[in-house]
Every structure is written in structure tokens, then in C-alpha cells.
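Thread title: Can someone regenerate the structure for this chain?

I was given the following input by a collaborator and told the matching C-alpha cells would be attached. They weren't. Posting the sequence so someone can regenerate them.
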Amino acid sequence: MATSCFPPFSASSSSLCSSQFTPLLSCPRNTQICRKKRPVMASMHSENQKESNVCNRRSILFVGFSVLPLLNLRARALEGLSTDSQAQPQKEETEQTIQGSAGNPFVSLLNGLGVVGSGVLGSLYALARNEKAVSDATIESMKNKLKDKEDAFVSMKKQFESELLSEREDRNKLIRREGEERQALVNQLKSAKTTVISLGQELQNEKKLAEDLKFEIKGLQNDLMNTKEDKKKLQEELKEKLDLIQVLEEKITLLTTEIKDKEVSLRSNTSKLAEKESEVNSLSDMYQQSQDQLMNLTSEIKELKDEIQKRERELELKCVSEDNLNVQLNSLLLERDESKKELHAIQKEYSEFKSNSDEKVASDATLGEQEKRLHQLEEQLGTALSEASKNEVLIADLTREKENLRRMVDAELDNVNKLKQEIEVTQESLENSRSEVSDITVQLEQLRDLSSKLEREVSKLQMELEETRASLQRNIDETKHSSELLAAELTTTKELLKKTNEEMHTMSDELVAVSENRDSLQTELVNVYKKREHTRNELKQEKTIVRTLEEELKFLESQITREKELRKSLEDELEKATESLDEINRNVLALAEELELATSRNSSLEDEREVHRQSVSEQKQISQEAQENLEDAHSLVMKLGKERESLEKRAKKLEDEMAAAKGEILRLRSQINSVKAPVEDEEKVVAGEKEKVNVQQ
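Best answer:
Regenerated them for you:
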């Protein structure tokens, strides 16, 4: 591509290009970097000038590749100029001036290439400059880090050297101290040699003292064992007394709970009694109401009886009217039969009238009479129908009255059933009240028994409390005496310990004096060391024994303080027990008063119960009478119902007969109408013939 595009290039052109691009490379954008790299660049130019020419050629080729799209753009612009030559003369002039000034197209191309290459190289140079700046910054940071590490390494060296020096000094000091300690140990050995002989004699004396102390310790141990046994006995006695007190407290709590339960039961019984009184009052009210209702029912029954009598009378009158109606119906039926016979006769006469037209005039008179008779029959039928409608109205009224009476009787029966139920409820409530009163009496008897038992138990508890008080006071006196003895023994043991300590101090002083006077016994050091260790062990054992004795004494003192505290607590508990007993006595007195009140209430309740029994017996008698009256009324009502049913049957029969009569009347009317139509036609024919005869005349 490069050879085809640029064939005439030679060394002169390459020199021109190099002369044109040198100022671009020598632009003062990064003078420091150029200064740093001047010797490197000089060496490179001096070594290989051919490589620089090759680089220039390569740069020209790259610029040519980058300019190719610009040439295409210029060709497109020239095509646009050929199309718009008439509209843009000024642009052509400018192009001509540019072509005239250029003279040679290769020079213009080179200028364009130089401009484009300068832009590309400038951008590449800027990128390289930024990369160099970043690399310089990283190098400087690395140099700073290296300097810091070197400083840290130097400081570590100095610290290590100082530590080594200090360790050497410490080792020297330790060596000196060890030498001094060795010398001190040698001196101690020398002094120990002098003290060993004196220790032998002192050990013998100390053994004697230790044996004496052992005998004294054994005696003290025996005394301590005796005191421990006495203390155990006292503790057992205290436990027994505490158990007794707990048992008494439990009994007291049980008694208090029982008393509270009895109080609650008394309250509940009183509330139940109040409820029963209210129930009795309500029952008395119900009884009075039932009496009033019975009076009202008796009055209503009387009224019903009067109404029944009235209705019976009305029914008798209605039966009479029904008999009259039956008679009238029979008469109407007879008249109907006669009218039927007359109709048959009229039909026969009509047939004869047809056969005998000459006898029409005579038949007209008979027809008029028959018509009059028919009108009379129609009037009679109308009256019969009106009477039948009246009878129907009466029957409907009677049925309504019958239904009303049935409703009244049903309501009365419901009221009677309700009264029976109320009476049964009252009887059940009275029986329940009786059973509850009997239960209350049983409970009161139980309460009396419990109160007597409580009084007995309270008296027993008082006796037991007095005995426990006496025994506790004895135990307290014994514990006081034993504590005083223990305190005296403790004082004696403390004095003995002080004496032994003083003797030990004197012996130690004498041992020091003997150790200063005797320095010639070096050969017996080993034996003396053994003896000294043995004596040390014995002394340690004696010290441990003394410490145990002191600890036991402290423990005894603490036990004495505890026993004092227990004594105080027992005294407080005794005071509380006495207070609780006083409260129990008060509660017992209050319960006795409440029992007396309950007995009085029971007596009053029994009186009231007897009164209620009498009232209930009276109510039963009244209810029996009311039941008998109700049964009588029920029997009367049943009789009335049967009579009503018979009347209803009769009314139904009358209705059926009336319906049959209506049907027959309608048939008669239809027959009469059928007879009237041909008669009227014949009359019209006769009238027409008469008119014709008159016209002919």
C-alpha cells in the first residue's frame, strides 16, 4: 500500500520528513524527562543511525494509513463541489488560490500528513508523559518506602545492640549475686554449725515441753469432746422442741383454717337462709297471686257458665228456627212439586195449543193466569232464598262463636295447666327448702360439735405451750451455764497459750546465745541438720495442732453466738405463739357467740317452717278445690264441644239441603225461561197475523 501510494519517495524526502518532525519531538512539554534521558538518546543515535531512518519510515507509513480516510473525505467534498459549482463561486476561488499556492500536490499532501502526524504524535506523547509521571510517582513512593525500611532496620540494629548490652550487664549482675549468695550460704553454714549443738539440747527440752503440751492437749480434746456431746444433746433437744413448735403451729394453722371454713360456711348458711326467706316471701306472694288467680278463675268460670246457658238458650231458639225452616223447606218442596206438575200441564196445553191454533185466544187467558202463578212462585222462591241466606249468616255467626268458645276454653285449659305447674314448682321449692333447713340443722349441730372440739384442743394447746415454755426456759438456763463454762475454759486455754509462746521466745533467745558461743562443731553438721529437720517437722505439727485448737475455739464461739440468736428467735416465736393463742381464744369466743345467734336463728327458722307448712297445707287444699272446679269446668266445656259438633253437623246438613234447593230453583227458572221464549214467539206470530187481517179488511 505504501509503495503504491508513495512511489517517488527517496532519501531527500525522508530527510525532509525527519527535518519536519524534529521540532515536534523537541517540544518543551516534559523537559525534565528529556534531560534525564539525554545520555541514553545520544548513545542510541551514535550506535544505530540506520534504525532511526527505519523508525522515520515506519512513522510515515503509519501516518499514511491514518490519512487514507481523510483523502476519501476530500474526494466526497470534491463531488459535492461539482454539483454545487453554480451556487458557490467563492469556494472555487479559494480552492484555486490554495492550488496556486501549493504548486505541487505532494507538498500539500506532506503538509497534511505532517499536521495529522503532529496531532497523533502529540496525543501519544501526552499519554507517554502521563505514564512516565505515574511511573515516577511510584518510583518515588518506593524510594520513600525503602528509606523508611532502612531507617527501621538501623533502629532495630541499635535496639538489638542495646538489648545485648543490657543482657550482658544482667548476666554479670546475676553472677555477682550468685557469688555473694554463695558467700552468705557459707557464712550461714558456719553459723549453723555453731547452733546445731545448742539445738540438740534445746530439742530435748522442747520434747519434754511438747509431751507436757500433748497431755494438756489430750485433756482439752477430752473436754472438747464432752462439750461437743453436750452440744449435740442440746441441739437434739432444740430440734425436738422446734419440731413440737412446728407441730403446734401446724395445728394452730389447721384450727385457723377450720375456723375460717366454718365462718365461711356460717356466712354461706346465713346467705342461704336469707335466700330461703326471700324464696318463702316470693312463695307467699305467689300463693297470694294464685289465690287471686283462682278467685278470678272462679268468677270467669261462673261467667262462662252464664254464657254457656245463654248459648244453650240461643241454640234452642236456633233449633226451633231450624225446625221452622225445615217446615218451610218442606212446604217449598211441595210447592215445587206442584209447580212441576203445573209445568207439565202447561207443556201439555202448549202442545195442544200448537195443535189447536183456534183455541189460542182461550189459551192466552190461561197463560196469563199461569204467568201470574209463575210470578208468585218466583216471589216465594226469592223469600225462601233470602231466608236461606239469613240462615247461612246465622250459621256462620254460630260457627264463629263456637270457635271463640273453643279458644276461650283452650286458654282456660292453658291457664289451668300453668297453675298446676306453678303449684308443682312451689311444692318442689318447699321440699327443697325443707331439705336445706334439715341440712342447715345438721351443719349447725356439726358446728357445735366442732366448737366443743376446738375448745378442748385449745385447752390442750395451752397446756402444751406452758410445758414447752418451761422446758425451753430450762434449756436456756442450761445453755447459759454451759456457755459460761466454755468461756472460762477458753480463757484458761488462752492464758496457757500465751505462757507457751513466752517460753518459746525465751528459748529462742537462749538458742541464739548458745549459737554465738559454739563454733567448733563442724563434724556433726549432717546429724544436726537431720535433727533440726525432725524438730522442725515436730514444731510444724505442734503449730498445726495449736491452729486446729484455735479454729475449734473460734467455731465454739460462733456456735455460742448462733445459740444466742436461736434463743432470741425462740423467744420471739414464743411471743408470737402466745399472741396467736390469744387471737384463737378471741375467735373461739366470737364463734361461741355466733353459734348462739345461729341457734336462735334456727329456732326462729323452725317456727317459720311450721308456719310455712301450715300455709302450704292450706294452699294444697285450695289447689285441690281449684283442681276440682277446673275439672268440672273442663267437663262442661267438653259437653259444650260435643253439642257444638252436633250443631255443626246439623248446619252442614241444612247447607247441603239449601244447596240442593238452590239447584232445583235454578232448574225451574231455566225451564220457565225456556217455556216463555216459544210463547213470546207465538204471540208475535199471532200479532202479525192480526195486523195482516186488519190490513186486508
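Residues 2-80+106-171 form one domain.
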